[in-house]
Amino acid sequence: MKIGIVGIGALGSLWATKLQQDGHDVLAITRDHSQRSISISLDQQAKFEIPANDLTQLSTCQAIIITVKSTQVKQAIEPLFTYLPTKIPLIFLHNGMGALDQLSEQWNQHPLFLATTTQAAFKPNSQQVKHTGIGQTFIGAYRETEKLTAQLDSIIQELDSALPKVMWHNHIQSALWKKLAINCVINPMTAIYQCKNGELLQSQYQTEVKSLINECHQVMQAVGQNQSLNDLSDRIKQVMIATSDNFSSMHQDIHHKRPTEIEFITGFLLKQAQRYAIDMPNHQRLFKKIKQLEK
Ligand code: PAF
């Protein structure tokens, strides 16, 4: 297959190297379109040389995976519009929700898919990526009109072979809401308290963690995401344990003085809460604090 990867951050680099290792042609699209190739090593392996930014090649790709952050989706994808025939599936993989709702109407003809993953990667520098956690990736439809076609099914099989497990999800919104709840608790708290994910399991954070999960659960129920409060709390705790030694992406963004994804994480949750007049004092407070830290 020929696959385009838009965004060569940690997850984009992981996908690019794993797909090339599995024998596929990869085309990297980076922020700087004048860059003609990228050179990157995966874990302890030799370097992969990946062609980059020949936008005319986009039309020959079987699928494009967009791994830029939710805050960069619009600016990364809009300039590619004229190069992308409407038959190519576009798979978006990022934290948070609502980023695709910002795309201009011109994208209505394109098959758009959303993905969520528990794979973890870390990019210590621009030439190296480390696969730090083995997980699962789910892909599902952005709109109800998008179905699992035979073409997409075979793409998913190839993706699964390169970086397992990759699976189709009939209700991707529910997987995205669960991930959103995880991010709404772990990301702002670790960024504000400057701690690793696992430190949130300490007793001093429990009252706050509980209130955040409660508020989030109320909104999930209001939007029709029926998951028990216990299951949601257990899931969030499991992620804190599984990623205990990691610094969350928001912690890293604040640390490196980059914009965070707060608008598409807590911001999205607060917008939904507003629709149903649900009081969210704890998430409001974290949202404000992250906005201050961003400044
Ligand atoms: O954004 C992140 O860092 C990750 O989604 C998660 C799951 C919180 C683990 O660090």
From TrEMBL:
Gene Ontology MF terms: 2-dehydropantoate 2-reductase activity; NADP binding
Cite the InterPro entries for this sequence: 6-PGluconate_DH-like_C_sf, 6PGD_dom2, ApbA, Ketopantoate_reductase, KPA_reductase, KPR_N, NAD(P)-bd_dom_sf
Query: What sequence ranges are listed for the domain Ketopantoate reductase C-terminal?
Result: 172-294
List the Gene3D superfamilies: N-(1-d-carboxylethyl)-l-norvaline Dehydrogenase, domain 2, NAD(P)-binding Rossmann-like Domain
Query: Mind listing the UniProt keywords for this protein, alphabetically?
Result: NADP, Oxidoreductase, Pantothenate biosynthesis
Report the protein's function.
Catalyzes the NADPH-dependent reduction of ketopantoate into pantoic acid.
Q: Which family does it belong to?
A: Belongs to the ketopantoate reductase family.
Name of the molecule in the record: 2-dehydropantoate 2-reductase
What's the source species for this entry?
Vibrio algivorus
- What is the name of the gene encoding this protein? panE
